[in-house]
Amino acid sequence: MSWNRFIDYFLDLPKGKCIFSPDSTTDIFKAGEVLKGHMCFMGDVSPSLLTLGIPEDVYKYARRLVDEFAPQGLIMSSGCSIPPNAKLENVKAMVAAALEG
């Protein structure tokens, strides 16, 4: 479910007590603008990118997440779950991006 229209509702939750974990259908960068400093973020490397993408694209996207969200709190993860057919090299690229941050 996309939370794009309802992101501001998350501001009603206690500051510093929650984790926003979208499932790759919500624009995490829009959420980051609205919720900046209010909660930690989790995700949001899409399952399709992990399955169909190439390591360079996964790494680049994961680094963008680190750059945008690490200062306020980031738990690197896939959006939803890592699919069983995800390419191992793509998962490794996601982890490498997180470890360098």
Q: What about the largest sheet?
A: 3 strands, parallel
Distance between the termini: 29 Å
Number of domains: 1
Q: What is the string of helix and strand elements?
A: EHEHHEH
Strand content: 5-15%
Number of helices: 4
Q: What best-fitting shape do the alpha-carbon axes yield?
A: globular
Q: Give the tally of β-strands.
A: 3
Class inferred from helices and paired strands: mainly alpha
| Contiguous uncertain segments of 5+ residues | none
Strand order of the largest sheet: 1-2-3
Mean pLDDT: 95
Radius of gyration: 13 Å
Helix content: 40-55%
Task: Tell me about this structure.
α3 packs parallel to α4. This protein has helices spanning 28-35, 47-52, 55-69, 88-100, and strands spanning 19-20, 40-42, 74-75. It has one domain. The protein starts with 18 loop residues before the first strand and ends with a helix. With 101 residues, the protein is mostly helical. 42% of the residues lie in helices and 7% in strands.
Short description:
With 101 residues, this protein is mostly helical. It is built from four helices and three strands.
Write a concise keyword list for the protein shown above.
101 residues; mainly alpha; 3-stranded parallel beta sheet; 4 helices; 7% strand; uroporphyrinogen decarboxylase activity; UROD/MetE-like_sf; Methylcobalamin:coenzyme M methyltransferase; methyltransferase
List the helices and strands and how they pair.
Layout (H helix, E strand, L loop, with lengths): L18 E2 L7 H8 L4 E3 L4 H6 L2 H15 L4 E2 L12 H13 L1
Parallel strand pairs: 1-2, 2-3
Helix pairs in contact: 3-4
Protein name: Methylcobalamin:coenzyme M methyltransferase
Pfam families: URO-D (PF01208)
GO biological process, one term: methylation
